[in-house]
Specification:
Strand order of the largest sheet: 3-2-5
Number of strands: 10
Radius of gyration: 52 Å
Shape: rod-shaped
CATH topology of the largest domain: Tetrahydropterin Synthase, Chain A
Distance between the termini: 153 Å
Helix content: 40-55%
Order of helices and strands: HEEEEEEEHHHHEHHEHHEH
Number of helices: 10
Strand content: 15-25%
Oligomer: single chain
Amino acid sequence: MDTGLLPVLLGGVIVVLLLAALSGLRVVYQYERGVIFVLGRLIGAKGPGVFWVPPLISRMRKIDLRIVTVDLPPQEGVTRDNVTVGVGAVLFFYVVNPNDAVNNVLDYSKATVQIAQTTLRSVLGQSLLDQVLSNREEINRNVQATMDERTEPWGLKVTAVEIKDVQLPVSMQRAMAKQAEAEREKRAKVLLAQGELLAAQTLADAAQLLSTEPISLQLRYLQTITEVATEKSSTLIFPLPLDLVVPLATLLRRLAGSAGSAGGGGVASAASPHANHAPAPAPAPAPAPVIVPAESVAPLAQAARPTFHTGES
């Protein structure tokens, strides 16, 4: 054997060994871990950074540790009160244990999505429609807790499950719209009744306060006449106050009674025996109310106000 070929062979062996050694170098990013298998045996997860594995007999699988976001398609389900709804959600999870994520499940991402869909349907079947619409936080917590329990052997952690859309049938939407309209009408009627009650109480208090001072009623009466008379196209019915009508009616009844007693004897003596059978005269018709144009009442009201103050003082 030529001694000149020995250094060449030695150099070639060194180069092959160097290349083999360099082929065992692995680089893993900060957000990744490398799960190492040597001759089919799980060694463990390594990283981040640069490390060496035995070449030709080892295999590495990189696992991303960042949070994965999965948009779940709308899931058709029937609630506990027998209403068909479609619910869409968003799933957030990440890998906690890379060894379990590789060794215990074939495709942890696909398996997690399937578990999320079935769990969401199951929770919907245990909830009422009102809970799905108004209490989503509780449903999200129930789905998350169930998924945590099922994905823990896979080395996963579900951080959140958020319901983002609830699809209702058209008939149910119309029924809910009618219910909301009826609720608003009920509130409007209650507010109107409360307003009328408050107005009635205020008017009662005002009437009680005005009754303590008779002069206030007269002032209010004159003020009302003045306000009505400002409209030239109005026609005002001018009633007389009761405190003026009652004394006048009493005086007229007294005068009529005294005149009847004075002339009763002469009428009885002059009457014939058949006078008692004469029919009684018909009662006179009641006087119609006096209707006065508004423009003619305003000067009277303005003129009556200072006279009334002078009389009371």
